[in-house]
C-alpha cells in the first residue's frame, strides 16, 4: 500500500512539474519576444506567431522528459512491471505520448510550412505602400503555397519509403504497391510524419552547428569578459569627435578664399560629417548609459556574471566531452552506417551517461537535469543567433537587437529556434543514448550460481539495465526514440553532424577567446534607423 501511494505521489509530482513547466514556457516566450521586437515596428500578428511557434518548440522539447518518465514509471527497480502496468495500460500510455507527438509535430509542420511563411511574406509585401491588404494576402498565399507543396512531398516520400521489403521476392509490381499501402496503414502515418520531422531536424542540425556550437563558447566567455566601460568609451569617443572636427575644419579652410572645393575634398567632407553625426549620437547614448541606474546595478552583479560564465563554460566542456566519447563509441562499436550507427549498449562511458543513473535514485533529479540541458541548448542557441545574426550564405539578412528586431527577423529567429529544438532531442540522445531509449528501466535475466551447501546450481533472476539487447516485451522504448530512428540515413547524417558540431565549437572557442570586449552600445554605428532622441537598448 505504501509503495502504491509513493508511486502515485511520484506520478502527481511529475505531472505538476510538467504543468509548471508549461506555464514557465509561456511566460518565457512572451518576455523573450517582447524583449527583442522593435518598439516602432511591432505587429500583433507577428508577435503572436513568434510567441506561439517558440512555445510549441519548447513544449515539444518538454515532452522528452515526460516520455522518459512514463516508460520508467511503469517498471519497478527490480525489473518487474508494476501491478497496474499490464499490456493494455502500457499500450494506452504509449499511445497517449505518441498522440502527443503527433499533435505537436503536426503543429510544427503547420508553423514551418504554412503559418510562419505566410506571416513573413505578408509583412514583406506590407513594406510596399502601394499594395492593399487583399493584394498582400494573395501574394503571401502564393509564396506560401510553395512551402505547402514541399511539406506534401515530404509526407508522401516518408509515407512510401519502404522500411521493410516484401518477403516474397517474386511478387508482382501490384503486390509491391499493395505492400506499401498495408505498411502505411499499419504504421498509422508514423513513417510519413517521422520523415517530415526528420527532414526538419536535419535542417535544425545545420542551424545547431552554426549557432548553438558557437553560442556554447560565446555566451560564457562574454559573461566572463563583460563589456567595455562606458566612461572609457566616452573618453575615446570625445577624442574621435575632436579629431574628426579638426579634419572638417582643415578641409573647409581650403575654401575660405572663395575657391570651390575639389570633388575629392567634397567626398571626404561628406564622409567626415556623416562620421561626426554618428559619433555625436554615440556620445548621447554613452552619456545615457553612464548615468543610468541599470549600469550601476550591473556593476554590482559583475562577480555573479563571472561565476555564471565559469559555470557555463564547464557545462559546455562537459557536453563536448560526453558528445565526443559517445560519437567515438559509435565509431568503434556501432553496427555501421547502414544501421544509422546504432549501438548496442554503452562500451565507452561518458560523464552524462554516468551521472543520469545516479540521479535516478532521487526523484525527480534526472528529469530536472534533462530539462536544464534542453534549456541550456536553447539559451546558447539564442546567444549564437544574437552574435552571428541571420545569414543566407554570405548575405546578412537580419540582425537580432534588443528592442529593435523587425517582425520578419523575429519570425526567422523563432523558426530557427524551432528547428534547433527539434534537433535537441537527438543531441540529448547522443549524450545519453541508453537513458533516452529506456529511462531507468531494468529487466530480469536468469543467473546461475553454484552453491556448495546444496552441491548444485541454483537459478534466480537478477535485474539488469535495459539496453538494445533487451527483449522487446521486457523493455519499453520511448516514443522519442522511434521518431528519431525511423530512417537509418537520418541517423547517419546526425552522427556526422555531431563531429561537425564539435569542430565548430572548438573554432568558436578560439574566436571567442581572441575577440575583445564588446561595446556597451554595440551596433549603434550601424543602426541608421536609430533616432537621435531614442534611448538605446543595451546590456552591460
TrEMBL record:
Protein name, please? Lysosomal cobalamin transport escort protein LMBD1
TM spans (from-to): 12-33, 45-66, 99-123, 143-163, 190-214, 306-325, 367-397, 409-429, 487-511
Q: Name one Pfam family in it.
A: LMBR1
Q: Which GO terms describe its cellular component?
A: clathrin-coated endocytic vesicle; endoplasmic reticulum membrane; lysosomal membrane; plasma membrane
InterPro entries according to UniProt = LMBD1_LysCbl_Transport, LMBR1-like_membr_prot
Which superkingdom does the taxonomy of this entry point to?
Answer: Eukaryota
Name any Gene Ontology BP term. gastrulation
Organism name = Jaculus jaculus
- According to its UniProt record, where is this protein located? Lysosome membrane
| Record's subunit section | Interacts with ABCD4; this interaction induces the translocation of ABCD4 from the endoplasmic reticulum to the lysosome. Interacts with ABCD4 and MMACHC; this interaction ensures the transport of cobalamin from the lysosome to the cytoplasm. Interacts with INSR, adapter protein complex 2 and clathrin heavy chain.
Q: How does it sit in the membrane?
A: Multi-pass membrane protein
Q: Which family does it belong to?
A: Belongs to the LIMR family. LMBRD1 subfamily.
Membrane keyword on record: yes
Q: Which UniProt keyword terms apply here?
A: Cobalamin, Cobalt, Developmental protein, Gastrulation, Lysosome, Membrane, Transmembrane, Transmembrane helix, Transport
Q: Answer yes or no on keyword Transmembrane helix.
A: yes
Subcellular location, principal: membrane
Gene that this polypeptide is encoded by: Lmbrd1
Listed GO MF terms:
AP-2 adaptor complex binding; clathrin heavy chain binding; cobalamin binding; insulin receptor binding; protein transporter activity
Tell me the classification of the organism that encodes this protein: Eukaryota, Metazoa, Chordata, Craniata, Vertebrata
